[in-house]
Amino acid sequence: MNFHTAPVNNVSEVTINVSDLKKSLDFYQEIIGFKVKSQTGKDAELSADGKTTLLRLTQPSNPINRHRTSGLYHFALLLPDRTDLAAFIKHLSTKDIRLGASDHAVSEALYLDDPDGNGIEIYRDRDPEEWSWNNDEVHMVTDPLNVEGVMATHKDEPFKGLPEDTIMGHLHLHVADIEDAVKYYTEGLGMEVVTRYGPQAAFLSFSKYHHHIAVNVWNGVGAPPPARNSIGLNYYTMKYHTPEAVENTVNNLESLGYKVEETPEGMFSEDPAGNRVLISE
């Protein structure tokens, strides 16, 4: 099953604030392997295939970098295959980049930060038939990555950037309160909880993916929202696939007391921690 195309709703794009657009563009092209789809002033759209926007960078006026707030923990780029993860590891081995790596049972992942400290995950999924479920809870762990096993799949070809089939796999957010966030994402956006890490984190998805959204309180319960010009998450796009689904979601949110704002870009909402979401068709 494809968890990132119709009829499954999914996070399709992420927009982040950066302090220096040129410096960030250099990083996202040379280190991550994005293509620049467009650039206008202090804004740029990045793509893996040259057509589909996955990441937007924007340099706000007077950017600030506050810590211990809600907002971005990391965005996660999903590679098509394990060989692509091997190619990425080989590529990064030639760069001076601090890197983390984990095996989550459902996936194999690398972790790094951009020049502003925005978190990035690069991962590949195991086949869903290999995932382990206990009733409605998916089994996830954080074990060391078998780097040798991954690298055994390497095809010894030069790195040519992100594969064209790379997509935005999921988004992990800092929030102020887990239960408030869970209510918003389940009752408001229509997701379901698929696993929890005690009272500290919850993982949510559509259609039994291991997670499209994760939320945590690792920046502290009650963490305040960042200012609009803060480095980090500006907003993300939750893609629904029919006008009716968008309308139903907006109605759900409003009936629960969550504010929805109509803008030229579309319908915006905020989770209880101030993380902005564009509800898009």
CATH homologous superfamily annotation: 2,3-Dihydroxybiphenyl 1,2-Dioxygenase, domain 1
Distance between the termini: 21 Å
Uncertain parts: none
* Shape descriptor: globular
**Strand order in the sheet with the most strands:** 11-6-7-8-5-12-15-14-13
CATH class designation: Alpha Beta
Structural class: alpha+beta
Mean pLDDT: 97
Provide the number of structural domains.
1
Strand segment count: 19
Largest sheet: 9 strands, mixed
Radius of gyration: 18 Å
Number of helices: 5
The CATH topology comes to 2,3-Dihydroxybiphenyl 1,2-Dioxygenase, domain 1
Measured by DSSP, the beta-strand proportion falls in 35-45%
Helicity, as a percent range:
10-25%
Question: Could you spell the SSE succession in H and E letters?
Answer: EHEEEEHEEEEEEHEHEEEEHEEE
Identify the CATH architecture.
Answer: Roll
Organism: Lacicoccus alkaliphilus DSM 16010
Keywords: Dioxygenase, Oxidoreductase
Protein name: Catechol 2,3-dioxygenase
Domain VOC: 10-125, 167-281
